[in-house]
Amino acid sequence: MTQHYALLGWPVAHSVSPQMQNAGFQALGISADYQLLPTPPEQFNEQIQRLIRDDFRGWNLTIPHKQAILPLLDEIDPDAERAGSVNTVRHESGRLRGWSTDGYGLAKSIEETFHIPLADRRFVFWGAGGAARATAAYFAGHGAAAIAIVNRTRSRAEKLAGTLRQISPDPELAVFSPDSTNPELARTLADAHVIIQCTSIGLQPEDPCAIPLPLLDSCPRILDMIYRETALQREAQRRGIPVADGRGMLLHQGVRCLSLWTDCSTPPLAAMRRALSLALQLH
Ligand code: NAP
Question: Angle at CA 227, nearest 5°, toward 132 and 98?
């Protein structure tokens, strides 16, 4: 019997998760379909009840539903608890379990691209929105030595730093505004192992470089969470700074979801990577 999976978001039409997950199921020989379910916030609870009724085995959640699911869960993974959001749900006989796989996906992508593990390393998160919160929480909970947060709205960065402090007393924490004349910020960037660009600047083709050019030369390595080419990626390449886009993060968070749904310990990484790459080319 075909198993059903889905991605709930609003909007959600842009997502390439169906191509990636369907390729994963196919490679595992599991008859399954993963579909996009555009779900406005006011229909969220009703949609979840429908998924339970129709025996969907699992689903992903994206904006704006990653927090709305929390009160509906029977069990929440510690990483998701720390992240304060859930992007993956597994359903078994009416029981819902939730995980957050973005932090894992980001860490895995950094390790794969730059051969830098998370533990005892220094990171700068350039942005303090939902993606920064979910991933920085994972980094704080898994042994990062230092986390600096740079954000246009400083109060949001400070709030995130407060959350990280509650997660762990260990990482050194710092907060900055994106001020290109601040020498301390330039030093913090230079001392970091990886700068993680997690603002939405770059989503539109005409967007400027997310990190001010005078600070760019201080960055040793950059991971831009945006999975298409951006001005930041082009500028970094021009300067010879190692840079990765967000595809690896998207891939590895998705691979982890598939493992959680299917209990598969060796998920079909290559097949999912191929499908993702093709889907992004065609999109
Ligand atoms: P969000 O919650 O809306 O946060 C947006 C962030 O961008 C905030 O830090 C915001 O700063 C900043 N920002 C937006 N416009 C700006 C501008 N003009 N100047 C300066 N800062 C600006 O969004 P999100 O969910 O965190 O997503 C952020 C990015 O991560 C998106 O590009 C998304 O595509 C990407 N992402 C990628 C993956 C992946 O798998 N690769 C997964 C999740 C997210 P303020 O606080 O000052 O408003």
Answer: 50
Question: How do residues 5-64 score in pLDDT, each as one tens digit?
Answer: 999 999 999 999 999 999 999 999 999 999 999 999 999 999 999 999 999 999 999 999
Residue located nearest, by CA, to atom 40 of ligand 1 = 250
For residue 271, report the distance from its CA to the centre of ligand 1, in Å: 29
pLDDT digits (tens, 9 = 90+) for 141-153: 999 999 999 999 9
Which atom of ligand 1 lies at the shortest distance from residue 128's CA? 9
Distance of CA 127 from the midpoint of ligand 1 (Å): 6
Q: Which atom of ligand 1 lies nearest, measured to the CA of 133?
A: 26
For residue 90, pLDDT over 80 is answered with: yes
**Which atom of ligand 1 lies nearest, measured to the CA of 152?**
47
Contact at 8 Å (CB) between 76 and 86?
Answer: yes
Would you state the pLDDT for residue 26? 98
Instruction: Please give the C-alpha separations between residue 165 and each of 38, 82, 140, 264, in angstroms, as whole numbers.
Output: 35, 11, 8, 34
The answer to whether the CB of 249 is under 6 A from ligand 1 is yes
Say if ligand 1 is within 6 A of residue 62 CB. no
Considering the chain, what is the average pLDDT of its residues? 97
Direct distance between the N- and C-terminal alpha carbons of the chain, in angstroms, rounded to an integer:
30
Ligand 1 atom 36 nearest Cα? 225
| Peptide bond just before 64 cis, omega within 30 deg | yes
Full-model pTM = 0.97
Where would I find the H helices in 5-116? 17-28, 44-53, 78-83, 102-114
Catalytic residues, which ones? 66
Q: Has residue 283 got a pLDDT over 80? A: no
203 close to ligand 1 (CB < 6 Angstrom): yes
pLDDT of residue 282: 84
pLDDT tens for 105-121 read 999 999 999 999 999 99
